[in-house]
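Regression test case RT-17, inverse folding.

Input:
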């Protein structure tokens, strides 16, 4: 009997939804599940439901002739290199836990975990808009601003696993208070809430429609997002000489509306030799990015291999 092909499972754990997928080693998504996180029911109930759903994917893998070799979890918040959940605002009952160890013991499969935005970065650079890049930052703009950093083909997590909290870069020292405890964090100025604030309280969707029709207030709101994000990214690009900047998340639906100001600001604030090398693009994988990235983390693959 021939050896079974390896497969991997990526899981995206959110405060509202819990999603998972069976993924081939080439990044192809074969089968998905999605359900409510229901974290308010407590950690034990959540862990039981997660174990059952992953077990279903393991069973499904055999239908595709695959043997699941690992699971990668994407969790919002500060996730240590050892998998410990140090802080997660929307998943408070899980704080202090190490889901990787608990699930690995239950499933008898290796389980690893990382910040969810980091896994989105892995997914986009492995199988999305950043294919072929060895260095890139992937920004997700939604309720907040998440980011993941790929350097030399590897996810950069820092000394403790907490690197790439770009959304909490201070851009206004005496600025708006942030739930993290700081003031003037970038995500207070680049997010869905910030866009609505710039646009007179309208939703991002409403503002996009208005901007497409040339409404000056809506156009100015997207320009402000581009200017604010571009100013911060220029410093990062000057520091790291990145190949790519990839923008995803809900607000990226208006990418074409803020991209001109974003590009202009980066060009104005970086060395010409650096600016001409960096590629700016919209993310390609949508909701699958974190699932694919989780599978890559579980596979332990180096990007490009």
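Golden output:
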């Amino acid at each position: 009997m021939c050896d079974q092909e390896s497969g991997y499972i990526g899981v995206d754990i959110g405060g509202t939804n819990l999603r998972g997928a069976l993924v081939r080693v080439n990044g192809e998504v074969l089968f998905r599940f999605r359900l409510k996180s229901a974290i308010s029911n407590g950690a034990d109930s959540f862990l039981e439901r997660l174990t059952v759903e992953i077990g279903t994917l393991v069973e499904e893998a055999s239908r595709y002739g695959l043997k699941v070799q690992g699971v990668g979890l994407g969790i919002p918040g500060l996730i240590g290199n050892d998998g410990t959940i140090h802080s997660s605002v929307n998943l408070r009952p899980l704080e202090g836990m190490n889901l990787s160890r608990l699930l690995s013991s239950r499933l008898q499969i290796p389980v690893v975990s990382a910040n969810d935005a980091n896994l989105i970065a892995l997914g986009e650079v492995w199988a999305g808009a950043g294919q072929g890049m060895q260095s890139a930052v992937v920004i997700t703009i939604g309720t907040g601003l998440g980011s993941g950093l790929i350097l030399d083909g590897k996810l950069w997590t820092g000394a403790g696993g907490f690197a790439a909290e770009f959304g909490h870069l201070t851009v206004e020292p005496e600025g708006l208070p942030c739930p993290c405890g700081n003031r003037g964090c970038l995500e207070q100025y680049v997010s869905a809430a910030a866009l609505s604030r710039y646009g007179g309280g309208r939703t991002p969707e409403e503002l996009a429609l208005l901007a497409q029709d040339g409404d000056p207030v809506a156009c100015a709101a997207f320009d402000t997002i581009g200017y604010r994000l571009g100013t911060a990214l220029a410093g990062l690009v000057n520091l790291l000489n990145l190949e790519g900047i990839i923008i995803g998340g809900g607000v990226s639906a208006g990418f074409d509306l803020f991209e001109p100001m974003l590009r202009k600001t980066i060009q104005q604030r970086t060395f010409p030799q650096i600016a001409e090398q960096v590629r700016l693009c919209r993310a390609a994988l949508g909701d699958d990015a974190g699932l694919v990235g989780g599978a890559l983390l579980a596979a332990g693959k180096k990007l490009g291999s």
